[in-house]
Structure formats: structure tokens, C-alpha cells
Amino acid sequence: HPEVEEALYMWFLQERNRHAPISGPMLAMKAKFFYKEITKKDDFVASKGWLERFKSRHGIRLMTITGEKLSNDATCIEPFKLRFLQKVNDLNLDPSQVYNADESGLFWRVMPNKTFVSCNEKDVPGRKLSKERVTILPCANAAGTHALKMVVIGKSNKPRAFKNIDLPVHYYGQKSAWMTKDLFKKWFDECFVPEVRKWLKDHNFPQKALLLLDNAPGHPSEEELTTEDKCITAMFLPPNCTALIQPMDQNIIQFVKQDYKKNLLLRAVSKDQPIEKTLKEFNMKDLVFALSQSWSALPSSTIKSSWKKLWPDIITTPSNDPQISVTSDVIEQVSTETQISPEDLEVWCRGMDKEENVFLEMSDEDIIKEVSNNTTNDQEDNDDVIATAPQVTDQDAVNAFELGLQWAEENGTSYNELLLLRRLRDKALISRYNNLKQKKIDEYFKAS
I need a labelling partner for 262 at 20 to 30 A (CA). Which of 8, 114, 358, 404 fits? Predict the structure, then answer.
């Protein structure tokens, strides 16, 4: 029952994404739960041997918990670097053909402490600007020469502000602004692959590429993220060391957010009206253009240097990370009007948002449904074949049913054959027959 193991691993990744501590007995207990729910049997014991093999197959390690957060597992970095470089060599890839993408949450219209209150509203209990967030997905190659359009996921499928606008980003709507497997797969097939193929062709590179990702629950499998010709594929980072070696986590996402916040403050003080009103007028169109501007402002040398921990051989000269600064005049003006201290504003500008989950969280029932859908793909393919077969006319179906019923009356029939005849009757539009014949047929089935 491979679907049981798939469900367990999906559950494990989701729990680890929330930094929940997972023990061996917890894995065994959850494995038995999924086995019972999927197979409707209760004869699986989840032995220690099975558990060790399951952990080995998926590279699950026992790690030490520090405080409330699981520590990064630095011991798996060197083995992964060797595997990564070996794959790059086997595929004969240039740094221009190796990409990395990573999601991050962004509170796009909120000041420090997740609130923004004008001077007139500061004494009104409970009044504050609603919290709004999006998920962003930047992606670029290791050479820093190709930065794809940024992905932005909002809650609305078709924001009114986007009407008749040529967007500078790839925008998707999802009710919780989360990344899902379907959205990621759609982006990979419709955006990543075509953009990469075109760029490689324009710059005379072979049509081969590798996309490096973390093993988040919102990412499809490596098999799903592989083109039919096998020339563009994905590779996953090992669990619990993403923050240490994933390029997008090495100041790239932080730069984009800091630059975006700086521009947000500049916009807030640029108009001769209350800052709160300016931010309320700041809509999704303004957001995507501001994010695109911040993404374009990132130097290519910074993108390239972000690979130094994973791929140090491609870094030939040291690169200083660009500094994002906001003038003291802007800080002072925003501080005066919002009643937020200058120190808090500066910390907010420099710091990263406290990210909420950017992936769709699935319940146990959702996980079971997901793996069950995967196992019925072959059946769905067969349905497609049947759907394209020549159609039988209504009259032919009626005649076939009549012959079948006559044969059944003369020779006797089994229960399954009667069920088949009943299905044929439904599909043959028996309503054509008069009530007497219909009644006779029903009495025959009842008697049988």
C-alpha cells in the first residue's frame, strides 16, 4: 500500500513545516491510522523495522530540539552538496542553467505591530487597518543572469485593480493566499519551463535546466516537476537545513522585502494627506508593481553570491550585499504621524516579517483524498478512452437490452448479470416503453 506511506510522508512534511516535534512512536501511530482509513483493515503493526526503513527511504533523521524550534541539521549539508554537484556534472549544467525558487509571506499594507493608526484614530479602541498578506515566489539562476517574473499569490482571483493592466508578475488567486501543489505545478508548466526554454535559446545554452527547491508540503514531487523530454527537472534540498544553504534565503528575499518597505514608507510620506489614507488607497496593482520594482533592483552579483554556501566554486569575486536605508527625515515623519517610535520603524524596515504558513494546510481527510486521487489516475485515463469511443444509439441500446432480457428469461442469469441488465435498462431510455411493459420488467427483477 504505497499510498499509506505517501500519506504519512505528506503529514510528516506538513508537521515539520510547523516545527512540530515528531517522534518514532508518533510516526508509527499515524501510519497505523492512515493504513486503517485507507485500506479499511486493522492488521498493520508498524514495527520498528518498518519504521527504520521508512525513515531511510525518506531521509528522516533524529535531531535535537533547542528551545521551541527544531535546530537546523548541518550534518546533512556536505553529503547533499556532493550529490548536488554530482548531478550538475552528470547533466553538464552551467550556473546559468541551475535555478532556485522559494516562497515567503508578506504583510503588504501593515506597519510595525501589524497595525497602522492615524493620529485621530489612536484613541479609538479596536480600530486599526486590517491585516492583509500575500505569498511571493522569487526565482533566479545561479549566475544571476536570469531572474524570472516574480509570483504573487493573493486571496482574490481577479482583483478589480488589475482590469486592463499588463501585470509585471505572475499572479494567482487562492482563498488564503497560500501556495498549493496545483498552483506550483501550474506555475512550473506554464511559466517556469517556457521562460527558461526561451532564455536558454536566446543565450545559446542547451535546453537543459535544474530547479532547486526545499521539500515543503506545497511542492509537487520531482517526477511531477520534470518535463516530458526529461531536460528540465527539479531537485529537493534535504529537510531542516534549508535556511543554511538555500540561495533565496541568503539575503535575497530579505532584500526584496526591505526595499519594498522602504518604497512603502516613501510613498506614504509623498502625498499631502494622512499616511493612513495613502496606505488605504494602496491597492493590489500598486503592490505587484512595487514588488516587481524591488525584485528588479536586486543586483545580479547579489543573486550569484547567494550560492556561495552551496556552490562556492562559481563565486570568483566577493560581493557586498546592498544596503537598504531610509532617511531619518522619512522615519521621523512616519513616526510623528503614526505614533510609532523611530526605533521600531527602523527595526521593522531591516527585519523580516514573522511569516505565517505560506502553504495549504491539509487535514488528515484531505491527505487521504489526495493520495487516493493519485492512485486513480489510471482509472481516469481509461475513462477518457471510453469517452472517445463510438457512441451507441438509443435504439441500439434498447434492442440490446431487449435481447439480453429475453436471453435471461430463457436461460436464467446471475446476480451480476442482472445488475448489468439494470444498467442497460437505465441507459436505453426505457421510458419509451409503455407502462405495462415497464411494470412487467420491474416485477421480473423483483422476483429474481
Answer: 358
* Nearest-angstrom CA–CA distance, 342 and 331: 6
Contact 158, 137 (CB under 8 A): no
Distance CA(290)–CA(115), nearest Å, equals 21
Sort 418 into a burial class: Cβ within 10 Å, 0-12 / 13-18 / 19+: middle
The sheet that has 232-236: what strands, in order across it? 139-141, 98-101, 209-213, 232-236
In tens digits, what is the pLDDT along the chain, a chain of 448 residues?
888 988 888 888 777 766 677 888 889 999 999 999 999 999 998 999 999 888 888 767 665 444 433 445 667 888 899 999 999 999 999 999 999 999 998 888 876 654 444 444 444 344 344 468 899 999 999 999 999 999 999 989 989 999 989 999 999 998 878 888 889 999 999 999 999 999 999 999 999 999 999 988 788 989 999 999 999 999 999 877 777 899 999 889 999 998 998 888 888 887 778 877 888 888 999 999 999 999 999 999 999 999 999 999 888 776 666 777 777 778 887 877 777 778 777 777 776 655 555 666 677 887 888 777 765 543 433 333 333 334 556 667 667 767 766 666 666 655 566 666 666 666 555 555 455 566 677 777 777 6
User: What does 8-23 look like in DSSP terms, one character per residue?
Assistant: HHHHHHHHHHTT----
Rounded-to-integer distance, Cα 210 and Cα 213, Å: 10
The secondary element (H helix, E strand) that includes residue 350 is helix 342-350
pTM of the model: 0.65
- Among the listed residues 361, 20, 366, the one whose alpha carbon sits nearest the alpha carbon of residue 180: 361
For residue 32, give the C-alpha cell.
497505523
Bridge partners (DSSP) listed for residue 173: 154
What's the N-to-C CA distance of the chain in angstroms? 39
- CA 30, CA 11: separation in Å to the nearest integer? 9
153, three cell numbers:
499569490
Angle at CA of residue 134, ends 219 and 105, nearest 5°: 65
